C-alpha cells in the first residue's frame, strides 16, 4: 500500500513519504569506515558481531545488566525484528501489537504461523496509548507484545506512566508474554528527555534498535537486538543461516557512534529535525488549515484528512499534485483518514509540499 | 560440529578450517568504497538492489537472458540461499541435495518444513558425481534439487557431462523440480576453463552467487540470486522483511568488481590459490603420506584419515597438535573418515600445518 503511491512518484515530486533521514552520515563514522577499509582485513566477524561493538551497545542499557553475549548485531533493525519474531512466535501464537503500527509486524507474525491482535492508539486522542483498551486486549494466550516508542507512523512516544501501566498489565495477564521494544527512533526525540524504554519496567523485554535513523546510516544495515540470553542464543542460530553476520565495515564504523563527535552529530541532527517538525506543523496548520499530531520523536506526523475522503483517495490526490505521502490506512484501521507525512526534507521543501497538499485538497473537495 | 573444533582453537593454532580467503579485498574495490563514502549519500537502495549492479550480474549469465528484475542482490550468498529455500520449499516438500554438502542446506530446509534427501558424491571415486545414484534418488515428489559446483566441502566441480546428465534426469523425473545452483566458488577454479553451470542445461535453475570468495569480500556481505521472475519476485518480498536491502556501500563498491583491474585481481587470487593447492597436496602426499582429493575449485581438499579413527576423533587429535581442520562427518555420511582442509593460508603455514597433522596422526596410531 505504501509502494502503491511511492513507486509512481515522478522525479519532480516532493517526497514526504520516506522513512529515511536525508542528512549525511556523520563525518566521524565515515572516516572510521575509510580507515578500516584502507588499513584492515575485513573478513567475517563473529556471527554475533564484534565484541567491542556489543560491549558499547550493552552499556546503553545499564538497567538490563547485559553481558555482551546478550547482544546480537544484525543487518539493520529489520533483521533484528525478523529474528526476534521468528524466534519467539510459533504456529498458533498470538502477538499483540499497536494499531496503527509498522506494516512489517503482522506480516512477519503471519510468516511465523502466528496470529496478530491489536491494541489501539486512539486517533481521537492524538494516538496516545490507551491502557484500558490494552488491558481488554491482552489475554493469557498472548505470547508477545510489541511496543514501539517513538512510534512509526505517529511519532508519539509512550510516557513513563504508559510504560508502567503496560508492564503491569502484561505482568497481571498471566501470559508471561515477552515484550518486543522497537526503539529504532528512540534517539530522535523532541521532548526534554529521551523517551523511556519498556525494558526499564518489564524484565522479559527484547530491545530492537540500530543506527539507521539516529546516525543517518540506513544504507549501512547496522542494528541489534538484546535481552534474555536464551532468546538471543536462539536468534543467533537463525541469524547465522539468514545472513551469517552484519557487514564488517559497517560494524567497525559503528564503533565511532559512541564517540563525542558522534554525540555532537546526533544532537545536531535532532535539532534539525526538531526545527523541521515545528516548521511543518505550523505550515500544515496555518497554510493548509489541517490538524496534525505533534510528534514526540521520529520524523513523522499524522495529518487528519478524514473530511476529504479515504486516506488512499487523498494520498492519490496528493500524488497527482506532486507530493508523496503515505495513506494512514496502511498502518491499521485506527489511522484510516490520516496521512503519514515525514519531515525528512529541508524546510523550503516542506513548505512547497504543504502548498501542493493544499492544492490537492481543493481538488478533492471539488470531486466530492 | 564445525564449531566444536574451531571455537576451541588457541591463538597459536594454524587454522586450515576456515572457508574464508585470507587475501585482502582488491584495491579497486576498496577505493570505490572509499569514494562513495566520501562523495555520496548512502541511504537505502531499492530492495532488489542497485539497478546498475543487477545489470552487471545479469550480463554474467547470457544463456539465461535475464532482465535486471530477475536479479536480487542479497546480504551475502547466505541470505540468497535462505531466501531461495524459504521461497521454494513448503511443509512436506522434498529437497534433494549432495552428500557431502554444505551444512546449512538441510537445516534451512527443515526450517521451511521440508525434508532432505541426499544423492551421493562417491568418496571412493574422489567425490565425483554419480549419475546412476542420482537417478535412483530423484522422484516425482522432489521439489528442489541443490547442485553445488565447485563443491564445499570437496572442491570438486561437476563436468559438462555430469551437468547434462543431472539436467536430463531431473527433466525425466516428472518432478518439474527447480534446481538451486550454488555457484559461490565458481570463479575460483584450477581447471583450464571455468566450470560450467547447471543453468546452461536446465531452464528452471535459480543461481546463487556473490563476491565473498572470488573478491575476498566475505565481510562485505554481497551476494545475489537470479532466475525465474515469479520465484525472484517472491524472494524479493521475503528479502524486504528479512534485511530490507544489502549494504549500499558494499553494493556500490561491488560495481568495481566488473572492471579490468578487478579481473586482474581475480586472476591473481586464483593463481595464488592454485599454487597453494599444489603445495598442500604435495605436502600431504610426500610429507604425511596421506591421500587427498585434487580439487577443481574452491579452496578445500578432502583428506582420507579413515585408517586413524572417526573424522571427529582425528580432528580432535589435530586440534591437540595445533592445527584446525573440519571433520568430514559434519558434511554428511559419505565424507566420514575424511577431514576438510582449506588452503586459505600462505605456503609456509600450510607446510607447518601438515607437519602438525603428521604428528597428530602418529599420536592417533599410538592410542589405537
Describe it for me?
The structure is a homodimer of 368-residue chains. The longest helix of chain A is centred in the C-terminal third of the chain and has 28 residues, at 260-287. The mean pLDDT of chain A is 96. In chain A, 40% of the residues lie in helices and 16% in strands. By secondary structure, chain A is α/β, with parallel strands linked by helices. Chain A folds into 2 domains: 2-19 and 261-362, Alpha-Beta Complex (Aspartate Aminotransferase, domain 1); 29-254, Type I PLP-dependent aspartate aminotransferase-like (Major domain) (Aspartate Aminotransferase, domain 2, 3-Layer(aba) Sandwich). In chain A, strands 2-9-8-7-6-3-4-5 form an 8-stranded mixed β-sheet, sandwiched between helices. Chain A has a 3-stranded antiparallel β-sheet with strand order 10-13-12. Chain A contains 12 helices and 13 strands. The first copy, chain A, is globular and about 60 Å long. In chain A, β3, α5 and β4 (115-122) form a beta-alpha-beta unit. Chain A has helices at 2-6, 27-39, 51-59, 77-88, 104-111, 131-137, 160-172, 229-242, 248-254, 260-287, 311-320, 347-367; strands spanning 14-15, 71-74, 94-99, 115-122, 128-129, 142-148, 178-182, 205-210, 223-226, 300-304, 323-324, 326-327, 338-342. Chain A binds chain B through residues 20-22, 24-25, 30, 33-34, 37-38, 41-45, 75-76, 78-79, 82, 104, 107-108, 111, 218-221, 238, 241-250, and chain B through 20-22, 24-25, 30, 33-34, 37-38, 41-45, 75-76, 78-79, 82, 104, 107-108, 111, 216, 218-221, 238, 241-250.
Amino acid at each position: 500500500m505504501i509502494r502503491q503511491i511511492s513507486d509512481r512518484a515522478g522525479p519532480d515530486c516532493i517526497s514526504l513519504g520516506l522513512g529515511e533521514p536525508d542528512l549525511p552520515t556523520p563525518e566521524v563514522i565515515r572516516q572510521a569506515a575509510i580507515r578500516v577499509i584502507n588499513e584492515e582485513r575485513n573478513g567475517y566477524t563473529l556471527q554475533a558481531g564484534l565484541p567491542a561493538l556489543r560491549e558499547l551497545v550493552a552499556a546503553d542499557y545499564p538497567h538490563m545488566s547485559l553481558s555482551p553475549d546478550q547482544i546480537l548485531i544484525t543487518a539493520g533493525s529489520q533483521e533484528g525484528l525478523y529474528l526476534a519474531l521468528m524466534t519467539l512466535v510459533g504456529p498458533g501464537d498470538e502477538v499483540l501489537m499497536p494499531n496503527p503500527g509498522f506494516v512489517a509486524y503482522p506480516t512477519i507474525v503471519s510468516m511465523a504461523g502466528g496470529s496478530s491482535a491489536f491494541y489501539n492508539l486512539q486517533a481521537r486522542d492524538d494516538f496516545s496509548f490507551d491502557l484500558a483498551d490494552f488491558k481488554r486486549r491482552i489475554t493469557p494466550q498472548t505470547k508477545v507484545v510489541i511496543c514501539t516508542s517513538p512510534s512509526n507512523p505517529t511519532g508519539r512516544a509512550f510516557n513513563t506512566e504508559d510504560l508502567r501501566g503496560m508492564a503491569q498489565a502484561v505482568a497481571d495477564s498471566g501470559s508471561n508474554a515477552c515484550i518486543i521494544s522497537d526503539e529504532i527512533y528512540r534517539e530522535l526525540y523532541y521532548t526534554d528527555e529521551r523517551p523511556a524504554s519498556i525494558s526499564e519496567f518489564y524484565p522479559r523485554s527484547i530491545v530492537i534498535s540500530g543506527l539507521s535513523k539516529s546516525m543517518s546510516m540506513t544504507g549501512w544495515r547496522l542494528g541489534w537486538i538484546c535481552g534474555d540470553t536464551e532468546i538471543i542464543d536462539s536468534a543467533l542460530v537463525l541469524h547465522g543461516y539468514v545472513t551469517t553476520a552484519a557487514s564488517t565495515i559497517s560494524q567497525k564504523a559503528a564503533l565511532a557512534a559512541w564517540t563525542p563527535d558522534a554525540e555532537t552529530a546526533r544532537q545536531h541532527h535532532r535539532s534539525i529535525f526538531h526545527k523541521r517538525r515545528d516548521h511543518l506543523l505550523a505550515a500544515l496548520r496555518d497554510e493548509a488549515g489541517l490538524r496534525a499530531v505533534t510528534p514526540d520523536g521520529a520524523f513523522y506526523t499524522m495529518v487528519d484528512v478524514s473530511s476529504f475522503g479515504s486516506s488512499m483517495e487523498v494520498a492519490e490526490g496528493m500524488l497527482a499534485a506532486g507530493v508523496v505521502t503515505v495513506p494512514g490506512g496502511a498502518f491499521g484501521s485506527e489511522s484510516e483518514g490520516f496521512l503519514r507525512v515525514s519531515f525528512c526534507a529541508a524546510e523550503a521543501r516542506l513548505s512547497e509540499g504543504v502548498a501542493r497538499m493544499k492544492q490537492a485538497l481543493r481538488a478533492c473537495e471539488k470531486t466530492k
